[in-house]
From TrEMBL:
Protein name: Ras-like protein family member 10B
InterPro entries: P-loop_NTPase, Ras-like_GTPase_Reg, Small_GTPase
UniProt source species: Ridgeia piscesae (Tubeworm)
UniProt GO MF annotations: GTP binding; GTPase activity
SMART domains recorded: RAB, RAS, RHO
Annotated Gene3D superfamilies: P-loop containing nucleotide triphosphate hydrolases
Amino acid sequence: MFSASLPPPSCTVLLSAVKNVIDIMNNNVTTVASSADDIEVEQLRIAVLGAPGVGKTAVIEQLVSHEFTDDYRPTTRCRCYRPSFIINEQVYEVTIVDCPPVTYFPATSLYEWTDFRGYGLRSANAYLLIYDVTDDDSFRFVRSMREQILASRGGHPQDVPMFVMGNKQDLLQQQQQLLLQQQQQQSTQQQAMLLSTSFTAEDRRNLPTRREVANIVKKQWKCGYIECSAKCNWHVVRGFQELMKMVHSIDAGHRPASIHDALLCNRCDIL
Ligand SMILES: Nc1nc2c(ncn2[C@@H]2O[C@H](COP(=O)(O)OP(=O)(O)O)[C@@H](O)[C@H]2O)c(=O)[nH]1
Ligand SMILES: [Mg+2]
């Protein structure tokens, strides 16, 4: 049976006659390996997982097509998106897999074959775990998924690149703005009453919880972490860039001491 103890090595393809790569991020043309006829292109598969409705499809479509829709259209078929990235002059062709709801990580190839055929979950090179910052349950989902991935794939946790994105940050901002407006309109006495309402209590509970989440993910899990909004296009590109830098570090044989090291050492552009 297929053993998934470590991520499979990325497949290296030689593309001939590719000389110039347009660096869209900087609006200028960067020549990569202009003196050579061949450019090595690494191919990677990133599986995007998270509870239904957290915005997985929205995040991917914002990255790839710069589009967002408020309508919720549940994903019913597995769909692949293929952006390319350049990290330190290394070109990566990435297959981002957007799956219909995946309620558990397949512990064996048999489970994968029966329930998630064609998704390539167990052989993915990296995982993007998305939760909704306004929904605690969706973070519990991500925590459980991470544990299942580690239990299933084994090896050192830092050898299985995982990146956590807290999406829908715009909703938190909306809540905070509303709270601020309410507070400004209230008298001191009314403010005291406001502090005891369930909305305010919820909001106060959110702040330390968010800090805790960031700490757990970065310090305990040693995963990359970013809060973003697919709706407002906040930090979506940066999240993918950080994920790719992490993957690149591990791919190049460096197990970064921290995600921070991987971010400092590498430069990443999206084609
Ligand atoms: N306010 C807000 N809504 C979002 C955001 N991202 C996704 N949504 C909405 O959340 C719903 C579910 O998004 P979708 O990408 O289909 O979730 P998926 O099931 O995880 O793929 C849709 O109605 C989206 O418009 C975001 O950043 N902010
Ligand atoms: Mg979807």
